[in-house]
Predict the structure.
Amino acid sequence: MQTYGCQMNVADSDWLDRSLKSAGFVKTISEEQADFFIINTCSVREKPEQKVYSHLGRLKEFHEKNPSVFACVGGCVAQQVGKGFFERFPYVRLVFGPDGLAMVPGSLQRLENNQHLKISLLDFEDHYPERIENWPDKMPPQAFVNIMQGCDNFCAYCVVPYTRGRQKSRSSEEIIRECSKLISLGVLEITLLGQNVNSYGLDRNGQEINFARLLRKIDGLHGLNRLRFTTSHPKDMSREVIEAFGELETLCSHLHLPLQSGSDNILKNMGRKYNRERYLELVKGLRKANPDITLSTDLIVGFPGETDHDFQQTLDIMNTVGFDSSFSFKYSDRPGVRSSLMTPKISQQVKSERLDILQKLQEEWTAGKLAQRIGGRDQVLIEGPSKKQKSGVWSWQGRDRGGRVVNIDFKTREDFTGRIFEVKFIRSKKHSLEGEVVT
Ligand code: 5AD
Ligand code: SF4
């Protein structure tokens, strides 16, 4: 199984992994041994969508060697292209959208029993589609919990409302039940997931409880150490949620708050429904509630009609806020979205130049912010071994409560995954910190 795209796709693939395992399917070590392949796709930008087609092209050789080998395509590209995959790639025998995921394990069994069958699971449900869980005896220390599906915002550039459908909040009882179960299986950190978590409960599936109340309830669960959530829309960030950053013990001091552009004109054309001033007010409120909070964001360069002045406004607000990190993208037209009809389009060359300038500026901010942490302390939850190992010590990687990556050297050979240490930061690098355990 290969997963592209956002954390929601990762969470969907994790679920599918658990379900297939409990249905008796076995993950093969090499691609040559596989009876079928699953690709969970992303169509938010042009680049990840292109990767899906080249990946599928590569699978052709396995089908040619053994004609019973087939591919399954899930996620947002599947929802968008649908049965078109059957024509373009004859060895694709299953397409499923985000709401069809729950039916994938059963469908795979049917496909294995009938070599001539092809199945498409592309309907949208009216309600949040609950899935049967097959929990293992123990879970890794971090877990995702879906709290909603879809999005109602229709930002001018975004394909998500078309691929993931309208917003559907999940019942708070189901969310709490899942969180409690995960904690009982060893989970210490929960990240709540949704396209726009701040509007949880506000759609027609919503209940009596809003996002701030949901956070409070989960914060109160015994045994939980860290709570995070993503993604937030600035227009729906309520005062209650901002204050929660100063009040809730488990809520980590990090927020991902996509800005997209620093120009009021572009924000208006994007249909984002906030302006610079409102965004800066939110930042002020968040830092007042929790002075340690780290902020990350998403930025798009080269939206249709973006002038040099608009772009300067983005650089300017980056310097005003001082983001700890950011994800930045060149605008790309997506099928059926409003901005694909907007002009003038910005050339690839200008988009690349702007992205380069923006990313260099962010690198400076990131490095500077990390350097400020030297000498400070925080709790670090170990996630796994560090990518780079040195001789004579064992390096482990984790994150502090602000979400910064921290590497720590240990003298003993032990599995530290899931352990929480009080750490002093001794050095900073471009994207991470080095720390030592305080005893
Ligand atoms: N072009 C470029 N970037 C996009 N994003 C969403 N749609 C597009 C598009 N058409 C970016 C936004 C969003 C992130 C997930 O992807 O910044 O927050
Ligand atoms: Fe897309 Fe806007 Fe919804 Fe985010 S809030 S998923 S950018 S439409």
Observations:
- Residues 377-437 form one domain.
- DSSP finds 13 helices and 18 strands in the chain.
- The mean pLDDT is 95.
- The two ends are 42 Å apart (CA to CA).
